[in-house]
Request: fold
Amino acid sequence: MSSNTNRYDLWAPETRANPLPIYARMRQEAPLVRLIDPNYKTPVWVATRYKDAVELMRDARFTKDARKLPDGTPSKQRRTETMQAINTHMLSADPPDHTRLRTLVSKAFTPRRVEELRPRVTAIAHRLLDAVQARGEMDLLDAFAFPLPVTVIAELLGVPQEDQEQFREWTNIIITPPRDGNMQPIEAAGRQFAQYFQGLMAQRRAEPRDDLLTALLAVEEQGDRLSPIELISMLFLLLVAGHETTVNLIGNGVWALLTHPEQLERLRANPSLIESAVEEMLRYRGPVETTTHRWAPQELEFRGQVIPAGESVLASLLAADHDPEQFPEPERFDITREPNRHIAFGFGIHFCLGAPLARLEGTIAINLLLERLPRLRLAEDPARLRWRDGILVNGLQRLPVAF
Ligand code: HEM
Reply:
């Protein structure tokens, strides 16, 4: 649903297909522009310039922990017991909790550890393409871009393959903005999610395995480093991140290539450009359009603007990554762009933990797709493609391709 109270309707379906013209106007206007989020009817300040977005993410005066907000603030009130049970994770924590939680899993996501997953990621990608190769057409998201990262994260965590459809449904409900502020479906999905994990944890306690779930359970049992709620929230965060992001790196990346045939040809001719190409895909249409909320715990001033206590600020990573002050000809998709210091993975202490994994999955997936499907092309007029609702995740609803 969109709102007519906003000068800039970022949420409108027609904006979703291309938010860049609105962001260009917002960048001109001020460091932060205050809008009303039509789904929650609450104010949100949006930073669109690259320098301001970076500054905002490194500014420790803002908090990610809604519990620190003044009583009566809507964002604090929405934190019911159920939401608390899945939201007590590193992305909603400030130091020192943030540091403690992130340290517990950071070793599993270092570039070196992630590189060890290369053969497995490659095998899964081949298997998915084997299943469609003879068909000659597919929805790239459904058949390839989605199942690949989901299988990888589920294996890493130790979540059974057969339960994946459930997660898809729950995570989707939880991250999709509520209709008319109705939190019921989100609450229900959160509750089911937490219950599911209680059951799985009981199984792992009885029968430990070589997975992240077993490792985290061991930490929780030692006592003071991870509470039961933090454990469930951690699993939730990792699963959501694995379900809603890399799928759109692959989807948006392939969309960018197929709508820029000369760049596609360059990459086909020289597959070793894939790493630089993936960086440009992240910059050009990154899967995470805006950061999550950061709040002013008390009134504070940012770049000369006064943010009242309890109000939220966001950085638009997509807008920042198209700031002409930082990127010459930002609207040009150039797979050899250099330098390319995009902030699609955020910045500062909450910089994406999964970046090495997402990069590995994206490079393997796209190169293999081009190698195995030499005639890959769009099966729908690009103007008719529909983009998802909401300003957090930027991605297509479907990406029909033929090959
Ligand atoms: C292309 C894919 C991805 C993109 C563009 C992306 C983007 C981001 C961004 C922008 C943030 C910071 C949000 C903020 O500051 O408000 C973030 C945080 C995070 N991401 Fe990712 N992400 C991706 C994939 C993944 C994957 C595959 C995982 C997990 C396995 C993951 C795990 C996380 C975690 C745990 C955090 C929170 C870090 C913290 O609070 O310290 N991400 N991601």
The longest strand covers residues 32-37. The pocket of protoporphyrin IX containing FE is lined by residues 57, 90-91, 102, 149, 153, 237-238, 241-242, 245-246, 249, 286-288, 291-292, 317, 344-346, 350, 352-354, 357-358 (CB under 6 Å). The chain has a mean pLDDT of 94.
